[in-house]
């Protein structure tokens, strides 16, 4: 088999799926992307493109376009229960970014990648895979619509709870819960934030509110410690009750933010979890992005892992479709390991478990904010993130 004119099915129209479709088409394949939603998802929180992922989007020709869409958040502050700013920093320092990194809204990134591929990729919305049979010389696919087709390769780019992974890796149980949950949704900008981010920390619970360039509203993010919860992922009302219960009695602006739960059209709720698999392919079926090696939002590297993984997977399949999956895993494994390690470490800094830890953290931040060497100290704290983001030598598959 060669990749030229190969029919490749990609399930998932998110960052990993659309980026992979771009590189597959560029390598000569004929990619088809199926997405359960009715359209590309335009909503989402802010994400960072850093390190090796910057090289990937530059090679796609969209780096300048994405930099023009940057959130332009200028300041980040930690506040106390009265709303007083305990410590304030410029947004790049607050978010651990170097000046080359690009912070954009996830929906903007997804839209740019979709527009880049819409004329060359067969997108099928409102569709999903329900059955796979690897015949040895292809994969017979059954869709939710009842249709069946054969493809040369099938790639799951369908997230943390990947249905493709469930079909092809039925014997695996790779999702590791980090004992934290996250919820994000849009709220009215009642605080009058202008490209600013505020963080309020309580015992076991952290709340962020931020506004970005070009947005009249704001985003509220809730991150809290919890053992695994039982709930139906399709039951939005149940998820909203879990969030409200977790933050019952919390101070600052939390009660006001939670009043907008019912009106939020972009409500998001999920566990912080990671995916750890011994291998990312079975025969002619492979995985990319969160489906293969989800690092959790706490890592700050999920988007970059998706972009880099899509580039390397398509490049290795182009070089040798027979051994491409194995070569992709060999090149990505250490990069993935380094970036996944950030998740558990970061969440411990983001969510303080006790009132004493919160007080000590607020005191340290207040002192640090007044020290002349604060940027240097914070740079040392963020060094593992930047090392992990660059922990791969990207081949030039066009050379």
Would you give an account of this structure?
With 399 residues, the protein is α/β, with parallel strands linked by helices. It folds into two domains: 7-72 and 100-175 and 274-344, FAD/NAD(P)-binding domain; 176-272 and 350-384, D-Amino Acid Oxidase, Chain A, domain 2. It has helices at 15-26, 52-60, 63-68, 91-94, 106-117, 163-168, 236-246, 254-258, 290-293, 302-319, 324-340, 342-350, 355-368, 374-389; strands spanning 7-11, 30-35, 46-49, 75-79, 85-90, 102-105, 122-125, 129-134, 139-143, 148-151, 153-156, 175-187, 196-202, 205-210, 218-225, 268-275, 281-282, 285-287. The strands form four sheets. Strands 5-4-13-14-15-12-16 form a seven-stranded mixed β-sheet, with helices on both faces. It has a six-stranded mixed β-sheet with strand order 7-2-1-11-18-17. A three-stranded antiparallel β-sheet has the order 8-9-10. The longest helix is centred in the last third of the chain and has 18 residues, at 302-319. The two termini are 22 Å apart. It holds the Pfam family FAD_binding_3. Residues 6-318 form the FAD-binding domain.
